[in-house]
Specification:
Helix content: 25-40%
Structural class: alpha/beta
Strand order of the largest sheet: 9-8-5-10-11-12
CATH architecture of the largest domain: 3-Layer(aba) Sandwich
Shape: globular
Radius of gyration: 19 Å
Number of domains: 2
CATH class of the largest domain: Alpha Beta
Distance between the termini: 53 Å
């Protein structure tokens, strides 16, 4: 019988299922129902993928197979920081708690489109590193220049400006939904698949805990990950230098639960000296530059790599 698996939530969460679903597909046909079907385009292992807004999805799809709705956020190993999100999905779907990287599949045309996009930036900024950049989470909004993010994961607009002002030989490619007007930030509008393609073609990643960190991991990119209210054990990857303010997070952000999250206010309020340290890392390329070596050297995820 076909496995029919529903995966909802954001792009990063959906991406963390890809290893388990690929393994499941070796044993039987897998059909995916998801909020982000784009994650599974060109995946040769998935029989079919449907968006959750499809009409008559119960009648046409679900009732004809073995329906599974994995929810890692409700698992003790996840909310007590024993498992990465990928491990939680692997545990539910495979009964195996191995850590895994996400996987994305681009068509040759998509790969060439992404390469051409980056080549165009390089033509205008030769000898610059091009970093895919996400300073704002999906829940962030901006009013009168003020960024509001109830999840305490996003940078402020002033922080973004300060970082960009002080970069040398670095161009930031904005992958957030909020526009950034700065001479060192490349601004463009992307479809989901176009965004995947440019991330695959860029040099490195500079991101908060959101979609880009997972997409970058899927394409074996290295870079810097800034964490606010979330635990690195749940969301970090060993191919990034992970930085967070000392003492944060003070409490688990209870996504899909109601809970008290005020303890994490200030988690992204880095000091000027902390930002200067981050800018030095970027300008002097003091972060992982190759994927293979850092993964071999850091199999165990750790939350000890923090800004002092």
């Amino acid at each position: 019988m076909q496995k029919i698996i529903q995966i909802d939530g954001g792009i990063g969460r959906v991406l963390c299922t890809t290893h388990a679903l690929n393994i499941l597909s070796e044993q039987q046909e897998v059909i995916v129902l998801t909020t982000w079907p784009e994650v599974f385009f060109n995946n040769p292992n998935i029989l079919k993928v449907y968006g959750l807004n499809r009409e008559y999805i119960w009648d046409d799809v679900i009732r004809h197979g073995d329906f599974i709705y994995p929810e890692p956020y409700f698992k003790r190993e996840y909310y007590t920081q024993e498992h990465h999100l990928s491990q939680a999905f692997n545990n539910i779907l495979l009964n195996d708690s191995v850590f895994s990287f996400p996987k994305l599949y681009l068509s040759p045309q998509e790969m060439q489109w992404g390469k051409n996009f980056i080549i165009n930036i390089r033509a205008q900024f030769p000898k610059h590193l091009i970093l895919a950049f996400q300073p704002y989470g999906a829940s962030a909004t901006i009013t009168d220049g003020i960024v509001i993010d109830p999840t305490n994961r996003s940078l402020s607009s002033d922080s973004v400006r300060y970082i960009a002002d002080n970069l040398k030989d670095v161009i930031l490619l904005n992958c957030s939904h909020i526009p950034i007007d700065h001479r060192k930030v490349w601004q463009a509008s992307f479809t989901v698949r176009e965004l995947f393609a440019v991330v695959a073609a860029c040099d490195h990643i500079f991101t908060i805990d959101s979609m880009l960190s997972h997409v970058g991991a899927a394409f074996q990119k290295t870079g810097i990950l800034l964490l606010g209210s979330t635990f690195s054990r749940n969301v970090a990857y060993p191919n990034y230098t992970t930085l967070q303010r000392e003492g944060y997070p003070k409490s688990y952000y209870p996504n899909r639960f109601s809970g008290f999250v005020d303890k994490n206010k200030g988690a992204m309020d880095f000091t000027a000296s902390e930002y200067d340290m981050l800018i030095t890392l970027l300008n002097e390329k003091k972060f992982p530059l190759t994927f293979g070596d850092v993964v071999e050297a850091n199999r165990e995820l750790s939350d000890n790599n923090t800004v002092p």
